[in-house]
Please model this.
Amino acid sequence: MKLEVLNAIEELKRAFPLSAVLSREDGNGGAYVIVEDVAIGCRYQPSSTWIGGHITAFYPYADIYPLFIADNVRRVDGVAFQPPVTHGAQFLERPALQVSRRNNHTQHYPQTAVAKFLKVLHFLEQL
Model:
């Protein structure tokens, strides 16, 4: 695993101190990462979930895209998810919802793994 990817995982551990951060090498210098038990707010049932993504060997010059959350997450208002949140995905053998929030400017404006995970969590808060 590349040093930049290892550092990103350590930064996620510091950013989410109450959550377990699991990682698995991808065999190409990157890693698959899951942050367990992250609060997503009272607008969802359950109000916490895991969030995961693939940090490639090109990090920080490649976007961490897409991110995933548990497939049992539902809006408490009963409104169904629509793109950019889609059903039917899997991440590391876990049934998942895919949350598509691309950073098209990563090569010129790198985004840290922590910033990407927080960006998706903020998006869910605003949804």
